[in-house]
Design goal:
The complex is a heterodimer of chains A (138) and B (96).
Chain A lengths: L3 H24 L7 H19 L1 H8 L3 H21 L9 E6 L2 E6 H28 L1
Antiparallel strand pairs in A: 1-2
Helix pairs in contact in A: 1-2, 2-3, 2-5, 4-5
Chain B lengths: L1 H29 L3 H26 L5 H30 L2
Classes of the chains: A mainly alpha (138), B mainly alpha (96).
Chain lengths: 138, 96
C-alpha cells in the first residue's frame, strides 16, 4: 500500500517520536516515564515507518538489526547490575555519582544505564516481531 | 471567578466526554461492518486522550498529560494497521 499522506506524515513523525521516546526514557528518573514506555514509543516510530515505506526501508533507517539491539540492551542491563557488586553491594543496587554544579545537584546513576538497556531491549524485541510480521505479509 | 468558570467547564466537558464514550462504544458493538468498528475504535482512543487531558485539569495534576501525549502519538498507528488489512482484504476479494 502506498499512500502519499501516510509517507509524508511518517517522515515528519519519525524524528519527533524518537525524540519523545528518549525524553520519556530520561524523565523516568523521578517522574512518570521510563525505559519501557520510551522503548514502546520508539518502536512505534519505526513501525509507522515500516507501514508507510515497507519493512526493508525501515530496517535501513534503523541501520542496526533489531536482534542486535535486543542483545546489546540485555548486556547493558546486566552490566549495570555489576557496578554494585564491584563496590560491595548486592547485585543491581543503584550506585550514584553526584556532581555539584552551582546550586543544583546532578545525579548520575546506574539506574540510567539500566533504563537505557530496557529501552534497547523493548525496541529490539518489538521491532523483531513487527518486521517479521510485515515481511511475511508482503 | 475564573476558577469557578474553569471548574464548571471541566465538569460539563467530563460529562459530555463520558456520554460520547458510551455512544462510541455502542457503535463499536453494533457497527454493521468492520470499517465502522475501526472508526469507532479510533474515536474511543481520541476520547480517552481528551478525558485524560480534562482529568488532568480537574485533578490539577499535570502528570496525567504524560499518559495522554504517548497515547496521542501512538493511537493512530492501530487505525492505520486496520486500514491496511481492510484494503488488503478488499484487494483479495477483487481478484481471487
Amino acid at each position: 500500500m502506498k499512500s502519499l499522506i501516510l509517507q509524508t506524515i511518517a517522515r515528519l513523525l519519525l524524528p519527533l517520536m524518537i525524540l519523545f521516546s528518549v525524553f520519556l526514557m530520561l524523565r523516568g528518573h523521578n517522574e512518570p516515564g521510563g525505559g519501557f514506555i520510551g522503548g514502546l514509543v520508539g518502536a512505534g516510530a519505526f513501525s509507522l515507518y515500516a507501514v508507510a515505506f515497507g519493512p526493508a526501508s525501515a530496517r535501513g533507517v534503523l541501520r542496526a538489526d533489531p536482534r542486535t539491539l535486543l542483545g546489546l540492551g540485555l548486556l547493558v542491563t546486566v552490566l549495570s547490575g555489576f557496578f554494585a557488586m564491584v563496590l560491595g553491594d548486592a547485585f543491581l543496587t543503584g550506585q550514584w555519582l553526584i556532581f555539584h554544579i552551582g546550586e543544583a545537584d546532578f545525579h548520575l546513576g546506574t539506574a540510567l544505564l539500566f533504563d537505557i538497556g530496557v529501552y534497547l531491549v523493548v525496541v529490539g524485541a518489538t521491532l523483531t516481531v513487527i518486521f517479521s510480521l510485515e515481511e511475511e505479509s508482503t | 471567578m475564573a476558577g469557578e468558570i474553569v471548574s464548571i467547564a471541566v465538569t460539563v466537558s467530563l460529562a459530555l466526554l463520558c456520554v460520547a464514550l458510551v455512544v462510541a462504544i455502542v457503535r463499536l458493538a453494533k457497527g454493521p461492518g468492520l470499517p465502522d468498528r475501526v472508526v469507532a475504535l479510533d474515536l474511543i482512543a481520541y476520547l480517552a486522550i481528551s478525558l485524560i487531558a480534562t482529568f488532568a485539569i480537574a485533578a490539577d495534576h499535570p502528570a496525567f498529560l504524560d499518559a495522554a501525549t504517548p497515547l496521542a502519538l501512538i493511537a493512530f498507528l492501530g487505525t492505520i494497521a486496520f486500514a491496511r488489512y481492510i484494503q488488503k482484504q478488499a484487494d483479495q476479494e477483487e481478484q481471487p
